[in-house]
Specification:
The chain is mainly alpha-helical. 78% of the residues lie in helices and 2% in strands. A two-stranded antiparallel ribbon has the order 1-2.
């Protein structure tokens, strides 16, 4: 766990070095951390809109909507890091700002998954839509366990599928799904001799990671719960 945290911290510091020039520009433009957080939320609303339009106007074999949504997910995720850095470098930290950031992060994830589930149901990926909903449950519980533990006086941050990992996983594979569909077709299916149903299709590039998220987010939430139990027992000794 310590090694995983160290690697994650090193990656964050590397990303901060890249985005800090952008942060300084935002500060000069007069943007507050709350304004940056709000922009990120609005972009995630745009993600949901793209998925819904893709569900209503696209067809099952047209995965370009998934690709565009994935790109916007990654762009919106950038604002999750920008708002914190704007607060730090601009000396604009506030208790309400931290609360506002957390609340809008949850709303952002909820509307994103709303769009994903809507798209999957509309195009008859019913099993995948269930996994997407389970991934949503796990994502919310990862955040809730941490918040509840902090309310009880212990800090729990570990786990494999924290918000940045979730955003990168969904955004990256959604974008790859859209791009690869342009080359192999959105309705490509792979069959294995002796198996009556296809074992892979183009959409699997997006849905397989969602299945992984459904599992790993809930494992992360349970792991945090166990860690919180140990920390509370240690605290009460």
């Amino acid at each position: 766990m310590a090694q995983q945290t160290s690697l994650r911290t090193s990656l964050q510091l590397g990303i901060y070095k890249v985005i800090d020039p952008v942060v300084k520009v935002l500060i000069k433009l007069g943007l507050t951390p709350n304004a940056v957080t709000t922009i990120g939320f609005m972009l995630n609303l745009g993600v949901a809109v793209i998925f819904i339009i893709g569900a209503e106007e696209g067809n099952r074999g047209d995965l370009t909507y998934v690709g565009w949504a994935g790109g916007l997910i990654l762009f919106a995720g950038l604002f999750d890091m920008l708002d914190g850095q704007v607060a730090r470098l601009g000396n604009m930290k506030s208790t309400f700002g931290a609360l506002y950031d957390s609340v809008l992060d949850r709303y952002s994830e909820l509307v994103m998954f709303l769009g994903i589930c809507y798209y999957l149901v509309a195009h008859h990926y019913f099993l995948s839509s269930i996994f997407a909903f389970v991934a949503l449950i796990g994502s919310m519980m990862v955040s809730y366990v941490r918040a509840r533990a902090e309310g009880l006086g212990v800090e729990i941050k570990g786990g494999l599928m924290q918000r940045p990992e979730r955003v990168i996983t969904i955004g990256l594979f959604a974008m790859l799904c859209g791009v690869i569909s342009l080359y192999i077709g959105g309705d490509y299916k792979l069959y294995v001799p002796g198996v009556k149903f296809h074992v892979f299709e183009t959409m699997s590039i997006f849905t397989f990671p969602i299945v992984a998220l459904a599992i790993l987010t809930n494992v992360t939430a349970i792991r945090r719960l166990v860690d919180a139990k140990k920390a509370l027992e240690q605290k009460n000794k």
